[in-house]
Amino acid sequence: YRSGTCRIDFATDVGKSNRDPARNVAIKIMRNREQFDRELKQRLGGSLPNTSSGFDLYTKDDSGAMIENGKGSNRFDVDHVVPLLRYHIEDFEGKRYHCLIMLKGERNLDEIIRYEGIAGKDVNKITCFAVDLAKALNHLHSDHNLIHADVKPRNVVRIRGDNKLIDFDASISIGERLTEKFSSGYLPPEVAAVRFPLKERLEDLNKRNEELMQKFYRGGDADEQGKILAELTVLNEKIKQVESSGPNSVKEEYVACAQVDIWSFGVLVFELLTGRPLFNCDANDNLLNEEEKRRLVNWKVITDKDLS
To answer: How many other CB atoms are there within 10 angstroms of residue 197's CB atom?
Structure first.
């Protein structure tokens, strides 16, 4: 898997026995050092680790169960978050690579929705996914006072029947400013209003709106009136978008709070229940076009059209 910020490769750690759960791993190779450091800090306790590159954070006991080595160990409960096994910062052929080594998952939730036919059909499995994710988010919010900030199907992974969170390079403590890494298809409307300010001035939009209203009331053929109404609809959406992203809302909407994850959780559950995303997105889970951005910024409620 590749995205704009990382690449995921699957590998076998030949130094581990066949019975070792850490033998099959996922390697997250990150380009951005700031995002790499952020994920490392969040996973290992809120500050840069005192471990060295390549240090095993886990061993196994006589029964084969994984146990933490203690030094710089994962702070998240392994029942809710895929654990970090070790990390590497290596130079190879003139390039520096930042790698996180984790347990390999069976599938992420995006693949499960696409290929396993549970969405909108298997209520029991949908409930299990929703409950597991709700517990994981509560663990982050209540136990560690932070948010994930990028909850989406690709960041939920199934491992041995359990569903766990991955990807903490956007994660931030509650009360701090949100990072610039996000998937806009899962952003709350109040954050999207700040992320996607319109370039048009409110005065110009209102002026055009008044001109169209006068033209509409002067009358005309049905086709022309329909075109005017369509443009008025778009203009009203733009006006709302400009008004909702005003200067008084900027500070509040950039501050991390649990509601950011809860909105994303709701969008994800909608997808589980219907088998399709709530918003049209590209391959990186970002909103497809300006129309979708306006639809999110001006969001009020799920309509019959969304459910049809």
So the answer is: 14
